[in-house]
DNA sequence: GATGCCGGGTT
DNA sequence: AACCCGGCATC
């Protein structure tokens, strides 16, 4: 009986070398109670509602910004002050994206900074040309006359295109439409013109067929996007292939990244990912019409996420005696590993 | 308060 | 993956 158990006379006997230094069962059966130390600010967050979801639409986030609805772009802001740090990241990302997508940078002139970066990600995600399979190849897409861009680090790009440069451009590009077909990049001043251009040049259709049966692929974008509602800009940025961003199994709950893409192009028969939720089916919602500052339409469904269907309310706790009970605190070394780790006992199952 | 163990962090 | 622990539900 007691012979088999290594008496407490030799505490270090079968015990793993590590183990809490201060805990000595042999001498202190009381073990360590609880941390009597003042729990300073531990419970600051008793129940946090999904940081992600919260961030997405947290109305308070934009409180400091201008009163305009478009001003509050829920960029992942956790601890970073609304200042430079974030901007830098964002700008770097923007520059990067711009480099790999199209030579013409753009953005609404009147919008605040925070909105800028958000445009890029979704544009990049959408811009994917149809025929190009999936691999968006930045290298092959450089039909740009003014952006040679050799191997450049993001930072370099950032400084290269510095704000002034960006700004200069955007002001002049405002209201333009750029063809996104590979190696085209044509810029027109009207949406209809652009559609015509695409029809004629890229689709080889007659200009008369205004809107066929919704089979046309108008890959163009408005250079003066005045929208915003782009939520969660960076985190939703899938560097590789936009098409792959479709979650493996989503019945329809909602996209992980609520992207509201307001203006521009209509994707063809592509399995238009959840992203494109708005816009009319046939008229490829052109910029001017859809530019209304919408307070993140998709946000509504964001919180209603999977939320873990199980909610697993913890099992009742079995009646079997567990290692702790059987061996006691003094012989912790005899416990099963699970018990030692405060996991469900593996030895005395219920 | 003791116990069982989940959830999450660290190594 | 192994190890550890905070914290919570239950007894």
Automatic annotation (TrEMBL):
The keyword Nucleotide-binding does not apply. Its main location: nucleus. Keywords: DNA-binding, Metal-binding, Nucleus, Transcription, Transcription regulation, Zinc, Zinc-finger. GO terms for cellular component: nuclear speck. It is found in: Nucleus. The keyword Transcription applies. Residues 1-83, 125-155 are annotated as: Disordered. It comes from the Eukaryota. GO terms for biological process: regulation of transcription by RNA polymerase II. GO terms for molecular function: DNA-binding transcription factor activity; RNA polymerase II cis-regulatory region sequence-specific DNA binding; zinc ion binding. Residues 177-207 form the C2H2-type domain. This is SLC2A4 regulator. It comes from Moschus moschiferus.
